[in-house]
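B., you asked whether I could sanity-check this one before it goes into the benchmark set. Here's the sequence:
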Amino acid sequence: MIHIHEKTLQDLEFPTVLQQVSELCITPLGKDKALKILPFKTKEELLDSLKLTNEYVASFYNDNRIPNHGFDTIAKELKLLNIENTFLEVHGLKKIVALSITVNDIVLFLKKFEEYYPELNRFASHLEVTKVLIEKVDSIVDRFGDIKDNASVLLSELRQSINRVKGKINQSFATALNTYHNLEYLDDIRESVVDNRRVLAVKAMYRRKVKGAIMGGSKTGSIVYIEPDTTLQYSRELNNLEYEEQEEVVRILKEVTDFIRPFLPLLEDYQSFLIAMDIISAKAKYAKSMNGILPEFSEEKSMYLRDAYHPLLYLNNQEKKEKTFPQTLSLKENSRIIVISGPNAGGKSITLKTVGLLQVMLQSGMLIPVHERSKVCLFDRILSDIGDNQSIENHLSTYSYRLKQMNYFLRKCNKNTLFLIDEFGTGSDPELGGALAETFLEEFYHREAFGIITTHYSNLKILATELPFMINANMLFNERTLDPMFKLVVGQAGSSFTFEVAQKNGIPYSLINRAKKKIERSKVRFDATIAKLQKERSRLEKTGQSLKLNEKKKGEEADKLEEINNKIQKKLESYQELYDSNQRLIYLGQKINDIAEKYFENKRKRELMDELFKVVQIENSKRKRATTKQKKAQKVKEQQVKKEVEKKVDVIRKKKKAEKKKAIEAPKPKPILKIGDRVRMEDGRAIGSIDKIEKNKAVVNYGMFTTNVSLDQLELVEVKK
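And here's what the prediction gave me:
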């Protein structure tokens, strides 16, 4: 069972990674769930998750893009479905339909392209594809979100009655309007609307002469609004009919809700599936942003990270257009613990954090930015002690806190553990703290744990040279300028360059000399020897890099030529086969043509049949009897070659056509569209106006409805005046 402590996730800045992944989700529920991602408990679950993300990344690079998985949450609708005698509003029904359509599209797509997405198809295959819900809702709700007239017989009758009564109201109102207008009882505006009812605008002095119900008056009191008696009786009838209509609509919605209620578990599955797809998609987008891959898993307990980047540093530097330095290191049975030493600001801590964060990301189902030849393994527990851990709330000093951490490490550390400790042993007297740190390190070593530590203590560097399965490493520095090169070199301890760095930073030489006299001569010589060896290593590293680069280039060129040669050879063979096959068919065609011509002349059927039979026998004698499988394979091969030839011919034709078109007329520059411009779709007739523009998409208003359209698909009809 895998368990990674929350403090380790905090130390390695894993929540920042989750925040960035969350921002790539397209649904609110997906964003919330992304922030709660944790390392998987079992290897099986983890591998499934990694495969799903890896397949989704592949969809970015082929023509079969996975359909959109965006949806509006139906949490409220699911709660209502759980309560008896409740009903869903039309808006809720529309959301359920949209959700069903989205899931159906994705599931059917993945089934169709199972060859490309086997894991995603398996992940979605348990979901039932059904159009029952969609058809049921569509039978009662129109595309504008209104209940259809034919949703029930009663509703149809009620709406017909409502229309009739409305007609009578308008007719009777028009009669009253003309009568009182002729009597000059009405104001200039003649009529108005109060509480959705048409009323006469009667001059205040004549209000007693107009029969009807007073509905209000103007602010000045000069006008009184009256609904004529003749329309009142119809208005009451209309109110009754509208009340009955509303009751019938509620009854229909209850009926549909009761129909949907048994599908509650399916709808919950649908929503969970789309949230999962949102998380997978966000992980895939995150991987793409930093060229993350799924490395090979090692059978034994060993890891090899080649050209590994710290994700947060890489993305941050990418924004600033700065270079990020990758690191290469490995942990295996015969080199379980790496002790990184060297001066500060050289990249020791970043190297440590890179390994830890990549391991946590991988064990949480994310692809990591490493070279494709890298190998990884899983750890049951990752322990970390990174950064300044002075605990104010617990009144603990840095050293006390670190000792508490070491105690926790000693309780949990075993052969399936990866430990990461920054500035190991600091916070106390160098001699005593160093001795205690050495004892802890020996204990971790004997427990066969894997780990990386950074330190300035010489005794820990010496311990790493003495123990067979522990190795030293250092960060390279420029031997002249003492500038960091941000490159890890395994196999040798690093000098802290204490006096050299002090001199570089302007400390007087006389003071540095006095400091040197105060410490043991052997210690200075030991540090100087390490510094000298490190400088030599730096020079050799540069030469080695140059040679490796040349060797790599030559190797790549040779591989490329070999690959091109093989491809040409295969194509020549395929074309030769196709040519031979076509030649044989031409020969057969000529022979049949000769026989047909002979028959045309002499009309002898028997002779014709004999000749045809002879041709067939000759052809069959050349054929080898093949199995159905072989025939199928041959047919597929021929079709592939034929398709390839046709594809190339088609590309050439298209190219020529495009060149010809280009020569005839130069493309017109596309106008820049703005809010308020009148536009239409390139292949449509309807004209609308642009309400909103964001991210290369426009919201076009057609009066009755609005729609989201890519700016590339729109053409300008009229510029906003």
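One thing to flag: The chain is about 55% helix and 15% strand. Otherwise nothing jumped out at me.
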